[in-house]
Amino acid sequence: MEQKICQSCGMPIDDSTYGKEADGSNNEEYCHYCYADGHFTMDCTMDEMIEHNLKFLNEFNKDSEVKFTLDEARASMKEFFPLLKRWQS
């Protein structure tokens, strides 16, 4: 089964981390950090989301075989994020 990812921040998501609609139903496109009660939790640009995600780089690196520097992670996200649904024009 293919791993779903949040279409706002790129985090892997599953039943326990799906965002919620206003009626409490799951939104399987976004995580609960990015989407709750039927709307996005942060009103931000794509670049602001990337900078926000960089705050969690040490935690990501701890659990990853590939260790990114701040600049490498930023560059990777700048390539990847435009592919996510929230950031497509």
Task: Chart the SSEs and their pairings.
Elements: E1 4-5, E2 12-13, E3 18-20, E4 26-31, E5 35-36, E6 39-40, H1 46-54, H2 57-62, H3 70-80
Antiparallel strand pairs: 1-2, 3-4, 5-6
Helix pairs in contact: 1-3
Structure description:
It contains three helices and six strands; from the N terminus they run E-E-E-E-E-E-H-H-H. The chain is an alpha+beta fold and 89 residues long. The protein has one domain. Helix 1 packs antiparallel against helix 3. The longest helix is centred in the C-terminal third of the chain and has 11 residues. It starts with a strand and ends in a 9-residue tail after the last helix. The mean pLDDT is 95. This is Putative zinc ribbon domain-containing protein. InterPro entries: Zn_ribbon_dom_put.
Q: What's the alpha carbon Rg, rounded to whole Å?
A: 13 Å
Shape verdict: globular
**Terminal Cα span:** 29 Å
Q: Which spans of ≥5 residues are poorly predicted at pLDDT below 50? A: none
Instruction: Tell me how many strands there are.
Output: 6
How would you describe the oligomerization state of the chains in this entry?
single chain
Roughly what is the average pLDDT, rounded to an integer? Answer: 95
Structural class: alpha+beta
**Domains counted in the coordinates: how many?**
1
Strand order of the largest sheet: 1-2
SSE pattern, N- to C-terminal: EEEEEEHHH
Helix content: 25-40%
Number of separate helices: 3
Major sheet size, sense and barrel closure? 2 strands, antiparallel
**Strand composition percent:** 15-25%
